[in-house]
């Protein structure tokens, strides 16, 4: 019978199997959930709460004052891009560094400089460190911490920007949020003013150039006109025009003198003194005060204390004379300026009369063309100069009245509730994660690393056609569990062994001679000896001539289990030191079941794998096939020792015992792979799940490598 002979329904989702996994692994799930929730609670109590304060900033593009910029942005996409740019500026390192400096965060216990453990150790050892590099690293760390604490985001598609600062101190959080907005708006105004002043500096040289060009054109036009007018007056016999010209010349001469006088008086007012060639331009009173000042200055320079003169009094008198001299010079300069203004009007009127008279006469066309050209160029230069000058004055005014494009729509207030940690969210996530981790660990424990807990799981694990359970039963301590086969034939334990007998009959191929049933396990303490004895008794009670052989040569235990004395006869027969007749010493017959048993005992002088792989063992098994209908062999575990693998090729069925929820699934799979590697084609492995729980003593391999009973 092959695997295909037994129907399987693996393509369906078995909800009951899923629930069964959860039920069997509920301890793992409960421990996982409890552990994660406890850790979450400990974290909530241990972590330092943090508070977040949020200020609201309104971005209003093109809030220029007195600006003639008509290129205002009406494109929503452009405005949106500008708002996003302002968000980036608010979070820029430049603004954050200004916040660090303004709020003195360098010495702040939360954001400030912290000495690393390595630096502390080096300082304790007296090792000098690079302070420049450490200072740079400290600033970088502070900037990183402040950057992590500051969050700037746009609120939807509006022009509102949220500026949030998170801190352990709620009052500090609100203070830093408001300060950050204040620094940002102040720097924005400063940047605007800086741009305006830069434009002014670019415009100033152009204004100077335009002024020079205007003066050049006006001078050239006046000079040309004066030449024309002088020629006209010289060639004219009109006495009135000659008088006007003389008046104009007199006014010009007087203007020159007043201008020189005004310049000299201005030098005195500004404290630059009197030049030698300017004395005739000044009044007698001014010259007298200047002479007094010179005398006082000489007295101070010639060590007045030696002459018995008070230096402080001299300095006070000198200061008084200076003040009087400046006041008198200022009054005389005002009078000069007034005279300049009057004479300028007289000269302008005289010039206008001469110009009108000359232009009204028959001047040559070339002179008229040149005059009008110079006049037009002068007018154009004046307009350019006035425009540039007006723009300069406007820029200077704009620099004084600039406002920010961002305004504080809502200042940050001290938060009353911590923003971190979010206890409800963390607990909810912890519960969800705990159940997820618990279920995941349950399935990992169920299907990968944990013990086998159901016959379906065991069947899928070994890819076997069928798997059977053997229930646990309660017996008196040191009692023989397998005696239930004839003492309680209707018990669940006895019925489970009859199920094993039935499946063994179905899976065993027909052939000549008795059938060999090999009982083994992956590791010790799996219940293989108990199952072998019970199975053999079940076969014997069914009328099958059955022999039970204790082929676990490392640690034979059947003799102890059935209450018979141990014997080395089997070891001696396999090693060639005893005859078949000597086997009678280890042969026992159970009258209750009709079962024949070959018990073991003692310790071999040869490696046991040498014995089980020898020709004598093969001949021994061949002989047993002829004498019995069924031979049940109890062998050693597969993983600790190799003995069983030498017997596997002679088996008609291998019954592999697995202890409930005890044996690692990797060990079970590895053992089955080794067994199948040595089995003949068509021979099956029948996995049986022993529901009996293992005792407190865990299984170990060392006993199977070196543990023998003493030879008796």
TrEMBL record:
It is found in: Cell inner membrane. Residues 311-398 form a coiled coil. It catalyses: L-tyrosyl-[protein] + ATP = O-phospho-L-tyrosyl-[protein] + ADP + H(+). It comes from the Bacteria. Its main location: membrane. Residues 527-659 form the AAA domain. This is non-specific protein-tyrosine kinase. It comes from Yoonia vestfoldensis.
């Amino acid at each position: 019978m092959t695997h295909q002979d037994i129907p399987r329904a693996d393509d369906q989702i078995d909800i009951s199997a899923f629930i069964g996994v959860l039920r069997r692994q509920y301890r793992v799930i409960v421990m996982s959930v409890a552990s994660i929730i406890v850790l979450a609670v400990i974290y909530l109590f241990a972590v330092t709460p943090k508070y977040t304060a949020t200020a609201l900033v309104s971005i209003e593009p093109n809030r220029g004052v007195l600006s003639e910029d008509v290129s205002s942005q009406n494109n929503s996409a452009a405005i949106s891009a500008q708002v996003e740019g302002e968000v980036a500026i608010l979070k820029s390192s430049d603004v954050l560094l200004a916040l660090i400096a303004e709020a003195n965060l360098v010495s702040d216990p939360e954001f400030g400089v912290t000495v690393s453990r390595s630096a502390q150790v080096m300082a304790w050892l007296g090792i000098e460190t690079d302070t420049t590099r450490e200072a740079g690293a400290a600033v970088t760390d502070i900037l990183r911490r402040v950057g992590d604490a500051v969050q700037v985001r746009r609120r939807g598609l509006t022009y509102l920007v949220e500026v949030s600062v998170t801190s352990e101190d709620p009052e500090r959080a609100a203070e830093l949020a408001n300060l950050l907005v204040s620094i940002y708006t102040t720097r924005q105004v400063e940047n605007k003013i800086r741009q305006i002043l830069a434009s002014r500096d670019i415009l100033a040289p152009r204004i100077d150039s335009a002024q020079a060009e205007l003066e050049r054109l006006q001078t050239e036009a006046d000079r040309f006109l004066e030449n024309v007018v002088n020629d006209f007056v010289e060639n004219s016999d009109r006495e009135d025009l000659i008088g006007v010209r003389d008046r104009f010349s007199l006014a010009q001469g007087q203007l020159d003198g007043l201008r020189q006088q005004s310049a000299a008086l201005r030098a005195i007012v500004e404290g630059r003194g009197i030049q030698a060639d300017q004395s005739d331009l000044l009044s007698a009173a001014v010259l007298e005060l200047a002479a007094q000042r010179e005398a006082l200055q000489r007295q101070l320079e010639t060590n007045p204390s030696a002459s018995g003169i008070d230096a402080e009094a001299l300095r006070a008198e000198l200061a008084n004379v200076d003040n009087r001299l400046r006041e008198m010079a200022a009054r005389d300069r005002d009078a000069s300026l007034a005279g300049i203004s009057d004479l300028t009007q007289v000269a302008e009127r005289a010039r206008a009369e001469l110009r009108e008279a000359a232009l009204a006469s028959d001047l040559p066309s070339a002179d008229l063309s040149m005059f009008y050209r110079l006049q037009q160029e002068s007018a154009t230069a004046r307009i350019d100069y006035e425009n540039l000058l007006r723009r300069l004055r406007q820029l200077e005014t704009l620099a004084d009245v600039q406002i920010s494009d961002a305004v504080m729509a809502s200042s940050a207030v001290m938060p009353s509730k911590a923003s971190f940690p979010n206890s409800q969210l963390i607990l909810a996530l912890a519960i969800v994660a705990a159940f997820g981790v618990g279920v995941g660990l349950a399935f990992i424990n169920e299907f990968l690393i944990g013990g086998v807990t159901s016959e379906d799981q065991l069947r899928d694990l070994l890819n076997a056609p069928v798997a059977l359970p053997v229930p646990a039963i309660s017996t008196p301590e040191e009692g023989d569990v397998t005696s239930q086969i004839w003492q309680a034939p209707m018990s669940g334990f006895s019925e489970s062994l009859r199920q094993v007998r039935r499946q063994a009959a179905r899976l065993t191929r027909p052939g000549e001679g008795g059938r060999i049933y090999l009982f083994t396990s992956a590791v010790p303490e799996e219940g293989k000896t108990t199952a072998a004895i019970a199975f053999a008794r079940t076969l014997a009670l069914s009328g099958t001539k059955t022999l039970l052989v204790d082929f676990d040569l490392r640690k034979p235990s059947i003799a102890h289990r059935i209450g018979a004395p141990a014997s080395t006869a089997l070891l001696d027969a396999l090693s060639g030191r005893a005859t078949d007749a000597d086997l009678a010493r280890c042969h026992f017959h159970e009258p209750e079941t009709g079962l024949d048993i070959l018990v073991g005992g003692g310790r071999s002088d040869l490696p046991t794998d040498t014995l089980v792989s020898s020709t004598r063992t093969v001949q021994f098994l061949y002989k047993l096939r002829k004498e019995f209908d069924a031979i049940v062999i109890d062998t050693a575990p597969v993983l600790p020792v190799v003995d069983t693998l030498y017997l596997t090729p002679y088996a008609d069925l291998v019954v592999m015992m697995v202890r409930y929820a005890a044996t690692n699934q990797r060990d079970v799979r590895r053992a089955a792979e080794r067994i199948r590697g040595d089995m003949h084609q068509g021979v099956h492995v029948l996995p049986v799940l022993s529901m009996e729980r293992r005792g407190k003593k865990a299984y170990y391999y060392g006993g199977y490598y070196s543990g023998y009973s003493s030879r008796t």
